Amino acid sequence: MQLSKNLTLAQMTKSNKATELNILNVPSKSNIKHMSILATNIWQPLFDKFEADLFISSGFRNLQLNRALNGSKSSQHMKGQAMDIHSKSIKMSYNIYKWIKENLDFDQLIWVSKKGFFHVSFKIKGNRRQAWEV
Questions:
Q1: Could you list the pLDDT tens digit for every one of the 134 residues in the chain?
Q2: CA 7 to chain centre
Q3: CATH code at 27?
Q4: Domain range holding 31?
Q5: Model-level pTM?
Q6: Whose CA, among 59, 62, 92, 106, lies 20 to 30 Å from 34?
Q7: Ordered DSSP codes for 45-78
Q8: Which residues of 25-37 are buried (b: 16+ CB within 10 A; e: fewer)?
């Protein structure tokens, strides 16, 4: 199932940890709707700009998977509203983070410098445009 032109549901639900622990990471219809909105407003503009330099390290997480990953109890990943993205290099990942901050609407945008990825979330309405670096 396509969430946007260049993102599938399988890409957003794939998880090595889920596979390792035999967790079925299955989203609800509501989660899929949120993922489609996230894909349209965040992933697709990024893909159109940066193409093959993007990789999703964490997309949708059901409650069981989120717990296994020690995720926040209020994680937007569980709603299908967030993804963690990295690129081929830390420098490129940071440049993409900055590009999002300057060019796209978002709810939260977090640069995780020690791991070289960023977390980005998007809601149907009420995006807060909160950005910070850790």
A1: 999 999 999 999 999 999 999 999 999 999 999 999 999 999 999 999 997 679 999 999 999 999 999 999 999 999 999 999 999 899 999 999 999 999 999 999 999 999 999 999 999 999 999 999 99
A2: 11
A3: 3.30.1380.10
A4: 2-133
A5: 0.94
A6: 92
A7: HHHHHHGGG-EEEE----HHHHHHTT--TT-GGG
A8: bebeeebbebbbb
